[in-house]
Amino acid sequence: MTDGPPFESPSLRRHRKQRWWQILLPFLLTALIVLGGAALAAFGGGAGGARLWADISLIWLILPALFFALLCLAAVIGLIYLLARLSRAVPPVTAKVQFFSRRVANGTRQAADKAVQPVVWLEEFGAMLKTLFRVKGR
Question: What is the pTM of this model?
Answer without folding.
Answer: 0.39
